[in-house]
Hints:
Largest sheet: 3 strands, antiparallel
Number of domains: 2
Distance between the termini: 69 Å
Amino acid sequence: MSNLLLAFEEYLSVTKALDVHTVSSYLGDLRQLEMHTQKMLTALDTTDVLSFLATFKNKRTLNRKLSAINAFFHFCHKKAFAHSKIKIPMAKIPRNLPKYMDSHEILLGLSHIDRSKTVGLRDYALILFLYASGCRISEALSAERSDIVEGWLKIRFAKGEKERVVPLAPIAVDALEAYLQAQGMSSRSLWLNYKGETLSRISAYKIVMKYLGVSPHVLRHSFASSLIIGGADLRVVQELLGHSSLETTQIYTHIQKQNLADTMQSYHPLRGAS
Length: 274
């Protein structure tokens, strides 16, 4: 790896505190750009970059490549490694409404869990934990017993390694305590499989899919949607979700608008008039 890419890697990891997988992806994209153009990165101009990007038809893939490229040239311009700053706008992608479930659907799914056994207590507690905290599945599986203090969850392994603290609903705390008491193991991890090892992402996915028919990430969307529909401030939801940008959280405002429209259609006296 060139000294410039090593410096960029350090900038992403230390200054920007990006996730190791994101850093690796950025560097891979830049090497791919070098191979395509057969030029050093600092010798590239906008035409070279556009030629590379033209090989990608999928807009989401295109934007992922652009994120790496724009971040790199911003870094080069900032550190005076390049005289001009290349900045190419992202491709516009229609934003789909996130799939979510309401609390009644989630509680109905939970009612089918047999809590007479430890595995049932675990599955019940895990689903409630995800819905009550809004955390990513990777954050939930990385959580340790010491991360929960007086009903508050400290999320240490957040995306971009940004720590945050969220309150847990009492029902989720009670379910977790019941599971841990029945489990009787001394592991630091909260969620364990039958071997006493930390639960895998695949196993967690299967658990949520079994009872709710959705992926664990839908519970994160459900957490945010429940708060927005209930009238929570968007910036509070942003902080609870750990979003670095308010723009990312704003997708949930569409759910609020749809909920208002549905309410009007159901209850307004003119709903059936023509």
